[in-house]
Specification:
Shape: globular
Order of helices and strands: HHHHH
Largest sheet: none
Structural class: mainly alpha
Number of domains: 1
Radius of gyration: 18 Å
Length: 152
């Protein structure tokens, strides 16, 4: 069942994210500024991808393929820089669980809007009561995880 395998890979990828945030926060302290840690982290990401591109013999990109494309296709890099910097700044203040549940809540709400509108080039998908209920549960979970900090 390929979709189960894909879901498990996504879970493993998601499990790496809190480690990324914590490590990048320590990197920011070591480098003296969170933005240097953001740059260093993204540079290490690029250095990890380059050998894979060579190993797979991926063809060089065709700059002409960018002609006529919408400007929003570049938002992924902006979103990555925002996320990495937010993790560096906020994870030490909120803790890993509180930061991650807040991030997940934001991701689920934004993903629901993207599905509903067919944003960023994806096919529109209906938003039904079950999907709304699932989103509400995630938001409730974010509040429950944050509750100790909110009640101080």
């Amino acid at each position: 069942m390929p979709s189960l395998a894909f879901a498990l890979i996504a879970v493993l990828a998601g499990a790496a994210v809190p480690f990324q945030g914590g490590a990048n926060a320590a990197l920011g302290r070591a480098l003296g500024h969170p933005l240097w840690a953001t740059l260093a982290s993204l540079a290490v990401s690029a250095l990890c991808i380059l050998p894979v591109l060579v190993l797979l013999r991926a063809p060089l990109p065709v700059p002409g393929g960018l002609a006529g494309q919408p400007k929003w296709i570049w938002i992924g890099g902006v979103a990555g820089a925002i996320y990495v910097t937010a993790a560096i700044l906020l994870m030490p203040k909120l803790g890993a669980a509180s930061f991650m549940i807040a991030v997940i809540a934001g991701q689920v709400v934004a993903a629901l809007v993207i599905d509903w509108t067919g944003g960023v080039g994806l096919a529109a998908r209906p938003v039904d009561p079950l999907r709304l209920a699932g989103t509400a549960l995630v938001l409730l979970g974010a509040i429950v995880v944050q509750w100790p900090a909110l009640s101080r």
